[in-house]
Automatic annotation (TrEMBL):
UniProt keywords, alphabetically: Membrane, Oxidoreductase, Transmembrane, Transmembrane helix
EC category name: oxidoreductase
E.C. number(s) listed in UniProt: 1.9.3.1
Highest taxon in the source lineage: Bacteria
Keyword rRNA-binding attributed: no
GO MF term set: oxidoreductase activity
Entry's transmembrane regions: 21-42
Domain Cytochrome c oxidase subunit IV bacterial aa3 type: 4-42
Pfam families, per database record: COX4_pro_2
Protein's recorded name: Cytochrome c oxidase subunit 4
Length: 44
């Protein structure tokens, strides 16, 4: 079994996945807030 060296793993795939997740969550939050504001203005 190979000896583990801390910090030697390639994490580029995980970083891309996390960046995509953050973009998805950000756009989801913006869309949700926009829908709530639109609903409040229409029901006004």
């Amino acid at each position: 079994m190979a000896e583990h060296k801390h910090g030697s793993m390639d994490t580029s795939v995980q970083e891309k996945t996390f960046d995509g997740f953050l973009k998805y969550v950000t756009w989801g939050a913006v869309a949700s807030i926009g829908i709530l504001i639109f609903a409040a203005l229409v029901n006004g």
